[in-house]
Amino acid sequence: MLDLMQDEVFRAFSTYALVVILKTMIMAPLTAFYRFKRGSFANEEDVAFKSAEERKKLLRPNPDVERVRRCHLNDLENVVPFVLVGLFYALSGPQLSTALLHFRIFAGCRIFHTISYIGAFPQPCRALSFFAGVGATVSMAYHVLSKVFVL
Amino acid sequence: MLDLMQDEVFRAFSTYALVVILKTMIMAPLTAFYRFKRGSFANEEDVAFKSAEERKKLLRPNPDVERVRRCHLNDLENVVPFVLVGLFYALSGPQLSTALLHFRIFAGCRIFHTISYIGAFPQPCRALSFFAGVGATVSMAYHVLSKVFVL
Amino acid sequence: MLDLMQDEVFRAFSTYALVVILKTMIMAPLTAFYRFKRGSFANEEDVAFKSAEERKKLLRPNPDVERVRRCHLNDLENVVPFVLVGLFYALSGPQLSTALLHFRIFAGCRIFHTISYIGAFPQPCRALSFFAGVGATVSMAYHVLSKVFVL
Description:
Distance between the termini of chain A: 33 Å
CATH architecture of chain A: Up-down Bundle
CATH class of chain A: Mainly Alpha
Largest interface: B-C, 31 and 36 residues
Structural class of chain A: mainly alpha
Number of strands of chain A: 0
Number of domains of chain A: 1
Oligomer: homotrimer
Shape of chain A: elongated
């Protein structure tokens, strides 16, 4: 194993980064699940064995499928910046306790964000978990920029 | 060159990561190509020199353009997690042969996925290449989590 | 701080990567701002306190909101590859001046791209800034591949 992986903060970061990445990846089979359940597909070849009339019906967008897709895109927009910013953060030598606090808040918020998005929880459930996640990422970015700044 | 780049697994990972990232980036000019070929644009300013009537026609979505865009988004949803998970994987010291197997399966699957998506190949071409790619990423994530796990 | 962060090129890369990631993240609140300003929402629960008639009106897509969302997606499609390719590039030991040139061109282009997209500047403002950004990323990828290539 390389030296980097001996670092306690980097190990913790790897764990949390993998958790949120895997959480994001689950959205793809979840979309497929809703596509089959609701009978709403995006491509002609996905409904090739159906009659022409049924095909037209199966290619219409469905609000539940679109909801899962928006949730997936929102994950991409937030989880990817977290992992990239977190990489610089973990390399910039923060305290383990501070780092864990950031990672835990972000991971918790994103898991709650997905549940409230898919479950259509009343606002501000989704909005608050979104902004708390963004806050964790921005706080890490600020920490890195305050230590390394070469423009 | 930094020490990290001396590591054989990391060099192999860099190569395959760049191949799939460049493959993803090709989708943008491909979208532009289909936009011009099919006459379907997304922004008012892209069709500024046309007559009002023609403009309205050129701003309608086209199924072929939408197909390339879905393929591009699917790449983002899969290639980015692969590169991020692969980074931790390459740092966690796997065997070169095992690592190469993962990288080759993923890269091969994603290239075949793009061809079957754009070419509208009959299912399960696209589905199988999608799931094999996901499998490679999940397998790498499992390997990392089994070695470093700090929650 | 870990050894990696002592490297001048890596420090410069961290700075520019964080700048473009934060720029991408700004698109989310900007989308929210346009959603409220134009009265166009995506989810039922976001307009729960309105009357049934008003709700229907507020759930219609709006061209300005869609423009910001396209700009956000375009950022994801370009900024994420830049940061990932740049990571390998920074590790492959380029000259500081060459590296800074790449980072500055990319960051400048993406900031100008966002301004011209949101402001609906006449073409080829958006197209040129897009292709110059892609050029910087591809040039870095070429540099890495010419140094480390293990297939």
